[in-house]
């Protein structure tokens, strides 16, 4: 059984359906969804992790980054183009909209449209976009309209007052399927690795030292952002997506390097990229290059002896 950050009709639900159409369990929060995986109530869950407009989804990133929590792994990613609709109860005209409800990320992506078209409306941010549609369906809710996916409006009997209202037509949200550690996806050549690095000491160059472990091995980053460790003010870790798979020699060596210099490294999985983009490797960064270097070094070791020519032990 799979699960997802619900309720039904959210973009997360849409992402899950693009991966698997079997019946799944919705959870009210990202934390509840991830904890359900840890408890074994579901095999895996779909949750949002990044938006092209708002950046990382803190509820997901912080839960996965916690080194004290039972580890989880990302198995798959889905990209969903975000299209919002302004929905209301039948018979409600756009000139009668005074209070609008939606999810905080949705509000951020339609802020300009709302300011221009509903300048006097109060915008309330909470829950999910599908939950907003469900709330508006209740005539006693005190809300006149919801910003949600079109399917959520239809699901709760609402009618569209305006469609495609996002400020950025290219907005995309990235979702990930998360499970307990086990057999991860095999490398495809177009992969991504997600990890969290906790610096060992707060000192000048601490972040540079982390980046150098990746750069010198030819590992390119797709995303990096600082996240509070929640242990003290000013204490941060770094959440990263890097091009490549743990089975790639350059990635394996980079992870080993990070483990040597970091207080903690949380490996969150290697999995195929949804966009299928393959990394452009610089000379010396391919698996064949690493294998050739290993063979060369093994040859050097084979020529070494315990004693030097002319020594007492060598002349006996």
Structure characterization notes:
- The mean pLDDT is 91.
- The radius of gyration is 25 Å and the shape is elongated.
- Strands 1, 2, 3, 4, 5 and 11 form a six-stranded mixed beta sheet that branches. Strands 8-7-9-6-10 form a five-stranded mixed beta sheet.
- By secondary structure, the chain is α/β, with parallel strands linked by helices.
- 31% of the residues lie in helices and 29% in strands.
- The chain has helices at 11-19, 30-38, 58-65, 104-109, 111-117, 129-137, 150-155, 206-215, 249-261, 287-302, 312-315; strands at 2-5, 24-27, 44-51, 55-56, 73-81, 85-88, 99-102, 122-125, 145-148, 159-163, 172-179, 191-199, 221-228, 236-243, 262-272.
- Among the domains are: 85-163, Periplasmic binding protein-like II (D-Maltodextrin-Binding Protein, domain 2, 3-Layer(aba) Sandwich); 185-300, Alpha-Beta Plaits.
- Helix 8 packs antiparallel against helix 9.
- It contains eleven helices and 15 strands.
Helix/strand/pairing category? alpha/beta
- Taking all Cα atoms into account, the compactness measure Rg is 25 Å
CATH C-level of one domain: Alpha Beta
Shape type = elongated
Number of helices: 11
CATH homologous superfamily assignment of one domain: ACT domain
In helices, the fraction of residues equals: 25-40%
Query: Main beta sheet: strand number and arrangement?
Result: 6 strands, mixed
What gap, in angstroms, lies between the N and C termini? Answer: 72 Å
Order of helices and strands: EHEHEEHEEEHHEHEHEEEHEEHEHH
* Number of β-strand runs: 15
Strand content: 25-35%
